[in-house]
Structure formats: structure tokens, C-alpha cells
Amino acid sequence: MEAQLEQELVAAAQSGDRDSFLELVHHYQRPVYRLAFAMTRDADHAASLAQETFVRAGKGIKDLPETRRFFPWVLRIARNLAVSLARKRAGSRKPGAGDPLLRSFEELRPDEQMALALRVVQRMKYADIAALLDTSLGAAMVRLAQARALLLGRADGAEGGVT
Amino acid sequence: MIHLTPQQLSSYMDGELNEVSTELVRRHMGACEECTLKFAALEVQEEHLSHALVHEPGDEFFERFAAAVERQLPQSKEPGSKRGASSPANRAAALREAARSTAGSAGFPAAETKVEINPPEAMQQPAPEQKPAASRTALPRPAAAELSPAQGLGFDDETDFDDDVVTAARSADAPVSARPSTTRPSPVERPIPSAARRYSERKATPPARPTQRPAPQRRHQIGRPAPSIPWYAAAILIVIAGAAGVMASRTDPVSAWLDSHGVRRPVSRRANPASIGSGLPAASTEQEPPTRPVPEPSPGEKTPSVQATPSDDEASPPNDSESSADDFTEPEPQAAERFLTPPKDPFADLPRAALAQVRTAQHSKEAADANPSAARYEAAAAEWERTVPLLRGARQQSLGRLELASSRYRAWENAPNEDRASAAAVAIRTYLSLAPQGAPRVVAKSWLARVSP
After folding, report:
1. Contact B177, B141 (CB under 8 A)
2. d(Cα A140, Cα B108) in Å, to the nearest integer?
3. What is the per-residue pLDDT across B6-17, written as a single tens digit (0 to 9) for each?
4. Closest CA to A63 of A49, A54, A73, A75
5. Most-buried pick from B132, B174, B239, B310 (CB within 10 A)?
6. Is pLDDT of B320 > 90?
7. How far apart are CA B438 and CA B421, in angstroms?
8. What is the number of other CB atoms lying within 10 angstroms of the CB of residue B222?
9. Per-residue b/e over A139-150, b at no fewer than 16 CB within 10 Å?
10. Which range is least confidently modeled, A68-72, A100-104, B168-172, B274-278?
11. A134 or B271, higher pLDDT
């Protein structure tokens, strides 16, 4: 979406135009859902998380500063909700269940998970990932590499025995 | 030998290294078995993640999604614009007016400082139907149970939102359907199409983006005298002289060094991912002769270093003000040369006859990698089966078994059947029984999972 057009839709949504906000929802629902699924690995939780993300965005859009872009802001909300959800699920989950790689993925830091999800799921370029994570290009690159190396190391360590 | 860093491997896999760094990484991997296998393990992991982390709920889900969000939004209060106009009608009219005045220029506002984040193609939703937003909202709403309410997950306002805290009161959470009809005009009555409609219209006919900035004609308008012809001539001469100097001094010290040290020109691993495990010591057997004289890099001459930079020209450079300790650190200038040192041949200490058999097996596997087929890989596997008993020590045994397992696996991959799967599983298990921890082991496990799920 063009930046200018997005700004107009945001401005209209801020002044109470619900249709403008829903147009933003329509445009960004798929990437937000995909990110939500990558962060939760559960379709029901992802649907609820994506939905709650936009509900909170709708409620808070009046406070979105003019200098901030809508999409990174929404992804930030989704990321924070995913962290909150992960904390709640941590107590209820059976330890050791599921794919070892995904278990290792869950142990990554939220920003590492998000960087990896943006790259693996959304096939984003580093420059876009850096902008979305509000960091420098080099830091995004390091975060991605660290996440991958950690996953590789943990998977390697977890599979010590011969199957 | 200095191996590739995780950043280099990761950026190489994503195609985010610049041309020089990509070539250096390719050369290194052509000569370094360890990095090749680590890269292969990364690719396997990436493929696994790309399946495990992706879920596509289908178009029907997304058609209902916005309606489900809308039901949970609070009832809109008196509209008041934070960014200017006093009423939605005035604001929308002002928007239309502004759009008319800037028709055809779809670029960013001049004050835009953030990087443009257009979701890439893969994440763009298919173009929604060209319906005015008002008519979309008039669609029948799905039953309340169709999309579970987000509250079911127990999200609460304690969520650490950093600077994104949404503090809207939930007192106005009445469903949309409960609102009095006067709060929202019907689609027919709506006087102004709103920004949403203009968005739909613009999507139908996207204006062309300006590809070049307008010529800086301002300079002559601010009273600066126009440059005279001699000034132009002098500028052109300077440019030509500079270009000639660059061309004259254009040497590739790294290539020259590689040639002088007889480092083999590798086959790109990305071009032939099937060649996992084939980067064994063949480097020492097929060395290309140096193709050009070897100029010794002068002390002042800078060696191209492996540094990660965005591959597309549009990407903005990292913001210095945002640099942190986590930033990618550029390797020291000599690092590029040091990590290109060819590895020692692990089979070098074998007797002559055994070494000849190793070379035969390696050539056989390379031939299969170059022109993959089940028969060629089976021939390679047969050679490696003859070779393994001749190998000494755990490392040689491990490498030989890995090549055998790789050949069996590739034979199955090219033409799967039960016999090949069984042979591959046996070979892989045998390798795993003596394989040390590390990336090759991870790769082999992924092979085993495929041939005997």
C-alpha cells in the first residue's frame, strides 16, 4: 500500500471512519494472521490473536502518531500479544511435546522469533525486517543469523541419539 | 582456516550479500566441507520451518475476518480528527481535493523519513473485489460463533505494549448491530465515498510511480550564475580522467590470490543443492591452473572484505544513529584471504592404492552431482562401499560413510522406490552410528526422516 494512501486511511480512521479502518484490516489481515500463526503455531490461537490485534489497533489508532506507519505498529501489537499469550500458555503446555525444532523456536526471544517469521513466512527483505523491528539493518541481520544458529545448535543437541 | 560466520551463511542463504561477498562465500564453500554441510543443514532447517510456521486458513476465513473485527470494535463516537479537519465529510472532501492536486504523483511525501514497507508479493492479499467499502459493510454478517472472540484467549490490558499501549475504554464495546441506525448512514445515503473508496479506486488503476527525481532546475532560480562552457568541459575532463584511472588500476587481488594458491573454482551450491556432502577433498584433485598473472597485492591495496549489504539498490543503508553493539561487524581486511585457505585433505595419509580408490569414488559422486540420476548415484554409492573398508580412523570412516549415505539418499530422491529407500536408510543409520555431533549429522537425520517417515 502506498504510504500516502495508508496515511489517508489512517487519518480517516482516526477521525472515526470505520470503513477506512476496515480497509486497512482487509489489506493487512493476511500478513498479520501469518505472523500470528508463526508466533503461536496454532490456528485457533492465531485467528484470535490476529483478531485481537486489529481490535486493539482499532481502539488505539487515535493515538498512533503521525510519524509512525500503520503496519509496523500493528505488527508490534501482534508481537506483544503473542508474548503475552506465550506466557499464559507456558504453564499449561506439556513439556517436551511436539516437534523439537518448534520447541526450540519457542525458546527464542520474541524479536528473534519475529525476525525469523518475517523472513521465513513472509519472505521479507532484511531492510523491511529492520524497519518493522525498528532496528538497524545490521542488527536485524545478526538477529536472524543468531536465531538460525541457535535453532541449529539446539536441534543438534536435542537429537543426540541415533534413531 | 577461518570458517564462514553464521551471519555470512544466513545472509548468503537469503541472497542478501553483495556480489563480491557472495562470490567469496561460494568459493569458500567450494573448498570447505564443514561450511558446506553447515549451510546444507541451515537450508534443511529453513525448509522445515517454512512448512511448520505457515498456515493458510483460506479465503473464506479472510472474507469474514474484517466483519469479526468490526463486531468487536467499540461503537464510534463523535468523529473528531486528530490530523486536521473537523468532520469526516470535510476531511474526506479535503482529501479528494489534495488527491486531485497531486494526481499522478504516488511517491512518498517529501518529509517521509521511514523506510517504505510495502508488504512483499508473497504477503499481499489478492486484490479484493472492487466494491465500495460501504457496500462491503452491508454484507450479511457471519454468525457470532464463526470466528471465536479474541477474549477467549484471555488477552488482557496488562499486555506489555511498550509504547503501543492501547488504553481505549472497553465501555463502548456495544456490537455494531446494536447501534441506532442514525449513527451510520446507509450506503446509498453516504454523501462522500471516504478514503476507503478512493483506496479501492486507486487499486484499480494504480498510478505510475515516478522513477526519477525531477531535474534540479531550482539552482538557476536562486540567483546562482549558470556555469560557463569551460566549467563544464573541465568537469567532463575530470570525470573521464578519474574513470580512466579506475579502469587502469582495476585488479582483483582476491581472485589473483586464489589463482596463485590454486584454489579450485567451485560449483555454486545454490545452483545444485543436491551436492550436499560432495565438498570433500576433491579440491586438491581438480585444481585449475592460474589463468592470469599473479600480482601481489600492494600494501595499500584494499582487499574486498566479506560484508553483508542489502542486495537491492533501493534498500536504505543502516541508520548510524540506530547502530548498536549487535550490528554486523566487518571482518578484518585479511579475514577474507584467511578463510579461503583450502582445507587439508582428510584422506591424504592413505596408501597410494586406497587414495586412488577414494579419488575414483569422489569422481563418481561428482559426476552424479553434475548430472543427477538414480543410476549415477548408485554407481557412486557402489564406489564408496568399496572405499569405506580402506579408510582409516574415525574421521575418514565418518566422511566415507557420509558420502555413501548421501549417494544412497540422492539415488532414492531421484527415483524413489522401496529398495532405494531401504538401502538409503541402512546407509544413513550406519553413518549416524559413528557420526560426531554437528551439522552433517542434522542433515543426515533429515534424510532419514524422509526415506523412512
Report:
1. yes
2. 24
3. 999 999 999 999
4. A73
5. B310
6. no
7. 24
8. 6
9. bbbbbbbbbbbb
10. B168-172
11. A134
Residue of A nearest to B78 (CA): A16
Handedness of CA A112, A118, A121, A123 (dihedral sign): negative
Contact B119 A71 (CB under 8 A): yes
User: Dihedral sign, CA of B143, B145, B150, B156?
Assistant: positive
Cα B203 from Cα B200, distance rounded (Å): 5
Q: Model confidence over B72-121: pLDDT tens digits? A: 887 755 444 444 444 343 443 454 344 434 433 332 233 333 334 444 44
CA distance linking residue B32 with residue B340, whole number of Å = 8
- Tell me which residue has cell 566549467: B231
C-beta separation of B365 from B407 below 8 A = yes
How confident is the prediction for chain B on average, in pLDDT?
60
B171 to chain A, any CB pair closer than 8 A? The answer is no
Amino acid at B84: G
Q: Judge: A122–B123 Cβ closer than 8 Å, yes or no.
A: yes
The Cα B374–Cα A93 span in angstroms is: 45
Q: What is the mean pLDDT of residues B395-415?
A: 87
pLDDT at residue number B230: 66
- Choose from A45, A51, A64, A146 for mutation: most chain B CBs within 10 A: A51
If chain A, 163 residues long, is cut into consecutive pieces of 10 residues, what is the mean pLDDT of each piece? 82 89 92 91 91 93 87 89 82 63 85 90 89 87 92 68 35
pLDDT digits (tens, 9 = 90+) for B40-76: 889 989 888 888 888 888 888 888 888 888 888 877 5
- For B215, counting Cβ atoms within 10 Å of its Cβ (0-12 exposed, 13-18 middle, 19+ buried), the class is exposed
Contact status, residue A79 vs residue A110, Cβ threshold 8 Å: yes
Q: Cα separation of A56 and A75, whole Å?
A: 12
Sign of CA dihedral B35, B37, B38, B40: positive
A-chain residues within 8 Å CB-CB of B106? 2, 4
Angle A89-A90-A93 (CA atoms, 0-180°, nearest 5)? 80
Give chain A positions within 8 Å (CB) of B63: none
The closest of A73, A66, A6, A5 to B113, measured between CA atoms, is: A66
Asked if A23 lies within 8 A of B133 by C-beta distance, the reply is: yes
Mean of pLDDT values over B263-271? 39
Instruction: Looking at the complex, report in whole angstroms how far the Cα of residue A95 sits from the nearest Cα belonging to chain B.
Output: 19
Residue B80, chain A, CB below 8 Å: the answer is yes
What the block records as the C-alpha cell of B297 is: 597485492
- The residue with greater pLDDT, B291 or A43, is A43
CA atoms within 13 A on the CB side of B223: 0
- In the structure grid, which three cell numbers stand for residue B351, read together? 596408501
Q: Find cell 555431533 and name the residue.
A: B437
Report the distance separating Cα B416 and Cα B284, nearest Å. 33
Closest CA to A83 of B153, B324, B56: B153
Give B228's pLDDT tier (boundaries 50, 70, 90): low
Q: In this complex, do B125 and A58 lie within 8 Å of one another by their Cβ atoms?
A: no
